[in-house]
Amino acid sequence: MSIEITCTVCGNRDKFLPYCQQEHFTVVTCQQCQFVFIPLVYRKSLSYHDYKSKAVAEAVKEGNNWLKMQRHRLRVYHIKKFITKGSLFDLGSGWGHFLLTAQAMGFGVSGVELSEEPYKYSKDVLGLNVQRADFFELNFINCFDVITLWDVLEHIDRPKPFIEKCYKALKPGGIIVIQVPQIDSYISKKLKCRWNMMGLDHVNYFSRNTLSRLMEDSGFSVRSMRSSWEVKLFIMYTVLPLLKRFKSRSKSTLRQTDQGISAEERQHFFNRVTRLPRPVLWILVKLHNTLYHVLSFCNIGEELMLVAQKPET
Questions:
Q1: pLDDT tens digits, residue range 60-92?
Q2: How far is the C-alpha of 63 from the C-alpha of 292, rounded, in Å?
Q3: What is the mean pLDDT of residues 11-20?
Q4: Alpha-carbon distance 223 to 84, whole Å?
Q5: HSE, side-chain direction, 13 A CA sphere, residue 263
Q6: What gap in Å lies between CA 93 and CA 79, rounded to an integer?
Q7: Strands 36-37 and 86-91: what pairing?
Q8: Whole-model pTM?
């Protein structure tokens, strides 16, 4: 390829193949380590300081926090298999519902969020210990028992120094928990360029091999990897587009319909779906949890969850 590219996992500079050609960018595969990513030349103007708007924040406020916390309880239960208590730092903490859940389940929590509206919501509405900052500018050394990155690492232009900084921030024996879109999942392989996770805001597309290599090269030992399925993302990014496609009944407008759905519209749709009586929601949560565990056990899903540990000494 004619543009200058560097693989951020293995450092390769000259052996790449196109993986997927989109309208405004090309996704490439490193022939040396098989890492799939978007070259940084396409990403120079992208900023996350205002990643979510005030309109989205208002939609989030109208949502069902109890239901959101049920989703995150599964994540905390998984963390407790490795560490049952201590300090937990959520990197890219978003609207804060995961931190709220971890706090309710016994962890001392804090976090960092770059985008203004999620930061203000988590701090002012949920009352969480969150700061608005760039993680690269913070100086944490041996501070946390757990660091979590939920759908964050795929956005990071420099994943290796980012993970190395996480390593320094963890206490000896601490764990890092990462969830990212999984490029070697059945769904991704089936849809390829039409995959909902494929977009310019996602620069990294990790597989089991490339994510474990990144962690091990940064000093971690991988403790667990499994595929996962996020029902909220399924509702917002699969069910809603399908309904809009059905209404349009036109294949020619299919892609335009998907791209024209705003984050505010997706959140309002999720709110409508989940505005059911509490007993009904409780039954649905139980059914969801059962399905989630079955799919994870069978390694079915389009997200990859990894747990890695910093050595004790």
A1: 888 888 888 988 999 999 999 999 999 999 999
A2: 22
A3: 92
A4: 15
A5: 10
A6: 16
A7: unpaired
A8: 0.89
